[in-house]
Design goal:
The chain has a single domain (5-117), classed as 2-enoyl-CoA Hydratase, Chain A, domain 1 (Alpha-Beta Complex). The chain has 122 residues and is an alpha/beta fold. The mean pLDDT is 86. The longest helix has 21 residues, at 97-117. The strands form two sheets. It has a three-stranded parallel sheet with strand order 1-3-5. It has helices spanning 5-23, 38-42, 64-71, 82-87, 97-117; strands at residues 29-32, 36-37, 50-54, 59-60, 93-95. Helices cover 48% and strands 13% of the residues.
């Protein structure tokens, strides 16, 4: 994403659509590949019902180099990896890329079954 007013407006629009999905009880699954940072992470990518990340993906509000330069601190190794985010509750699962598709298929089947079982006015 290129930072700018148009990009910022699209993030707001996308977040609004995600809210409408929730009202319709439609699942929103986030799949984080390398890299997921900045506004995308701060807005719609953190709103998922389920968040899955690719092994080793860089994930965070700002990249480690930006944080270290801006705040003159040294971050621990791996602090912006998918695995770190998973250990700290930000990501539901971390899987190798070759396992993403089968996992998504299983999740969608489960979520479709749950939706079928909800009462009509649910």
């Amino acid at each position: 994403m290129q930072e700018g007013i148009v990009s910022l407006m699209q993030m707001a629009k996308t977040s609004a659509v995600v809210a409408r999905l929730g009202q319709e009880h439609a699942p929103f699954i986030v799949v984080a590949t390398d890299a997921l940072t900045a506004g995308v992470f701060a807005s719609f990518a953190s709103l998922g019902d389920v968040a899955i990340a690719e092994q080793g993906a860089l994930i965070g509000f700002a990249g480690p180099r930006v944080i270290e330069a801006a705040f003159k601190i040294k971050l621990p190794p791996g602090s912006h990896t998918a695995e770190f985010q998973h250990e700290h509750g930000m990501i539901d699962a971390v899987v190798p890329r070759r396992e993403l598709r089968p996992l998504l298929v299983r999740l969608l089947r489960i979520l479709a079954l749950e939706r079928k079982e909800e009462p009509a006015n649910g």
